[in-house]
Write a structure and sequence with these properties.
Elements: E1 4-9, H1 14-23, E2 29-35, H2 45-48, H3 59-62, E3 82-85, H4 89-101, E4 105-108, H5 124-127, H6 138-141, E5 152-155, H7 159-175, E6 177-186, H8 198-201, H9 212-223, E7 226-228, E8 231-233, E9 238-245, E10 252-260, H10 266-274, E11 292-295, H11 303-306, E12 315-322, E13 328-334, H12 338-354
Parallel strand pairs: 1-2, 1-3, 3-4, 4-5, 6-9, 11-12
Antiparallel strand pairs: 6-10, 7-8, 10-13, 12-13
Helix pairs in contact: 1-12, 7-9, 7-12
The structure holds NADP nicotinamide-adenine-dinucleotide phosphate.
NADP nicotinamide-adenine-dinucleotide phosphate binds near residues 37 and 69.
Length: about 375
Amino acid sequence: MERRRIGILGATGMVGQRFIQLLNNHPWFEIAWLAASDRSAGKTYGEACKWKLDTPLPERIATMTVMPNVPEGTPAGELPKIIFAALDADVARELEPKFAAAGCAVVSNSSAFRMVEDVPLVIPEVNADHLPLIEQQSWRKQTTADGVPGGYIVTNPNCSAIGLVLALKPLEERFGIESLFVSTMQAVSGAGYPGVASLDIMGNVVPYIKNEEEKLEEEVGKLLGSLAGSKIALLDAKVSAHCNRVPVEDGHTECVSIKLKKKATREEILAAWADFTPLAGQKLPSAPDQPVEYDAAVDRPQPRLDRMRGRGMAATVGRLRECSLLDWKFVVLSHNTIRGAAGAAILNAEVLARLGKLDFKKPVAVRA
Ligand code: NAP
């Protein structure tokens, strides 16, 4: 299969670097375009980026020129039709619509459009059936004169919401969720680069991450909601979140207590997680075989030991035990810049490719 040309907007940041690492040898996508702020435009990627990952910066990428951050900054015909975006929310709010209006599929990591009614907020294992919402977007409806459909925005959730909701989905399906309490311990890479000052975080815990608790609480409702016509009916469950920054490099750990609508035994809950393989057989390159892995050891999951399960795309669950306030409690861990960001967006794009939503071709005339 010929690889599709893709671009990365915000390519020099923590998530942008993960995109480069994960897409460098991707079988379906080829990195053809990179952009970041005006500070970086015009430089080579190697000059503009402080590479922070533990694999070498690929040589071909290092020599690519960082392009201006608007579609018209690239010569006509050279802008890829698929843009992975890793921008801060304020910047994303301004720039992502410009790329959608220019006819691109924008696969975004930012919170800017996650809760907008006609924008899908998607984890493929959980709610790929929300993707048809893109057809409601005004950019998408702007078909060219020869019938090529317009661009659109698809988002992936907050980095803590992804691991949490992967663990919740099998429970919601089998037992229904009435309420849950979650307390997070979030890695410093989740704050981007340079992120939290070392003097603030070394030997310390910061019990505040701006807007994080609100995002986590509302995104759970949309992700576990159902598509009703052209809208998402939110899950009717109470969610209370506490979010904390901890001195861990990568990997968000979350302690969860949950009340179910239908009583469930420990064995039934473990079976719900073990049986959860909704993408099996689809042959999506980034999909883990087992999206939720249960570890029975008393002291797992741990970020250093478990964040790379499923090539960084699996959520690890452990310590399932009865809760004296709600019904059950457990711990879930996932890699925040892979499953929680770049890897999640790439998996979204793989599903869009399978659905034919990255083709941007004029419809083939069918003869009677
Ligand atoms: P980051 O390390 O601060 O990187 C920000 C990127 O945006 C850089 O490439 C920067 O380019 C670029 N940028 C800044 N202003 C710009 C502008 N005006 N036009 C174009 N590009 C601009 O942030 P990050 O951690 O990668 O996060 C990016 C987004 O992903 C955020 O919305 C974040 O909330 C979300 N997210 C992050 C994580 C995580 O674990 N880190 C997880 C999930 C979601 P320069 O180098 O040129 O300044």
